[in-house]
Automatic annotation (TrEMBL):
SMART domains: HTH_LUXR. GO terms for molecular function: DNA binding. CDD domains: LuxR_C_like (cd06170). It comes from the Eukaryota. Gene3D superfamilies: Winged helix-like DNA-binding domain superfamily/Winged helix DNA-binding domain. It comes from Glossina brevipalpis. Pfam families: GerE. Coiled coil: none annotated. Residues 147-212 form the HTH luxR-type domain. InterPro entries: Sig_transdc_resp-reg_C-effctor, Tscrpt_reg_LuxR_C, WH-like_DNA-bd_sf. This is HTH luxR-type domain-containing protein. One of its GO terms (biological process) is regulation of DNA-templated transcription.
Amino acid sequence: MSGTHLKREDISRQIIYMCESNPTPCHIRDSECRYVYINPAMAELLDLPKGFNIEGKLITDISHWMAIFSEETYKHDKNVIDNKSSISLLITSAFGREDIVQPYIFDIQPFFNDKGHVVGTMAEAKLCRFFSPLQYADGESPITLTLNMPHSYFTERELEIIFFTYHGLSSKETARRLKISHRTVENRLCNLYQKIHINNIYQFREFCRDIDLDCYIPTNLLVPSIRVIG
């Protein structure tokens, strides 16, 4: 990367104003992956204390789960700067004041100075929303995941089986993912049907939609990770 050291005073007032009033988390980092600026929304996403001075700090200098991705973050920032091209990352980590593991899309682009030289990166982060082709065909809107257990009526294992069954996996496919026998899955499903007083998969799907289980994902499936998606 270039050795150019970008400072907050190098950023135009117009950009700062746009970021400050933007509800979407955003940050600007220099060519060495040091933070130069973050807006209030990003400070909240990273769960930073009020008044925290982030300028000149690396992700490893702040107490956040994203620090485990520091090497990959540095590599991706370098590619954006060297190639003068944008990239989108899907980062699953603990975010926000509640410290909940959830997926965010970080859109990163090169940051240019007044002379047209790339001196860093600028990024926006948005909570990942999910949208299937069938939802599109049915005229539905993208959804965000339900991360908290929506109903204490079910055990964790039952919720895992509900999740895979609702999304179309067979008993054998569900069993393979959960590392249990398919007969165990079938027995659990049978008990579930009795428990919620339904008789078939159509009623099962309707029941899940009625109590927002269609948007729920078991927390053990949300593994901290970073991947390129665009």
